[in-house]
């Protein structure tokens, strides 16, 4: 149960009701972080516009690389909602969700490529507090992904840090978008 109640559709304003209909059609349910954010309608609008803009902008990296970094961020912070939702997104994109069960063994698992390992190491370094990103990591990712790819990866990891910390702080947990396809992350 979230620490702040989600806004039910019957109490939502017209714009929020419209957003809820769109989200139900798209994902099968209103994502709980959006329903909690609806307590602040102007912030909900800003978040929704921002998410749509990012979704349309991220086109440089392969989805498998981008979503792996986002998923790893969620597991490192411990956001079960993000793990649940992220697994659904990866499944819906036709990505290998089975490998997510082995993400903690990424260094030795044959399911992860050398690039995947670099991306996970970078994700971990960005998510550490304090951050432990090195010049060498950025240079290697820039060499492999190009400037746009390295910037896109960094942006997505930073954005997922924001999302997961928001959800974790407000006690938003797995909503049931998947059926145990990836490890559940317990709330500490």
Automatic annotation (TrEMBL):
InterPro entries: AhpD-like (IPR029032). Coiled coil: none annotated. GO terms for molecular function: peroxidase activity. Signal peptide: none annotated. Keywords: Oxidoreductase, Peroxidase. SUPFAM superfamilies: AhpD-like. PANTHER family: 4-CARBOXYMUCONOLACTONE DECARBOXYLASE FAMILY PROTEIN (AFU_ORTHOLOGUE AFUA_6G11590), CARBOXYMUCONOLACTONE DECARBOXYLASE-LIKE DOMAIN-CONTAINING PROTEIN. This is AhpD family alkylhydroperoxidase. It comes from Saccharopolyspora gloriosae.
């Amino acid at each position: 149960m979230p620490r702040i109640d989600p806004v039910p559709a019957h109490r939502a304003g017209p714009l929020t009701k419209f957003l809820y209909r769109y989200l139900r059609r798209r994902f099968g349910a209103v994502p709980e972080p959006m329903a909690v954010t609806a307590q602040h309608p102007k912030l909900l609008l800003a978040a929704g516009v921002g998410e749509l803009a990012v979704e349309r902008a991220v086109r440089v990296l392969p989805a498998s690389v981008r979503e792996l970094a986002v998923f790893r961020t969620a597991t490192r912070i411990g956001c079960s909602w993000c793990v649940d939702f992220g697994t659904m997104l990866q499944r819906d994109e036709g990505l290998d969700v089975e490998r997510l069960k082995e993400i903690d063994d990424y260094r030795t698992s044959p399911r992860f490529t050398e690039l995947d390992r670099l991306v996970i190491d970078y994700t971990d370094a960005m998510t550490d507090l304090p951050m432990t990103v090195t010049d060498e990591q950025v240079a290697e990712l820039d060499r492999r992904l190009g400037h746009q790819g390295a910037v896109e990866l960094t942006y997505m990891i930073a954005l997922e840090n924001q999302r997961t910390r928001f959800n974790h702080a407000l006690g938003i947990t797995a909503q049931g978008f998947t059926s145990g396809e990836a490890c559940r992350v317990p709330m500490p």
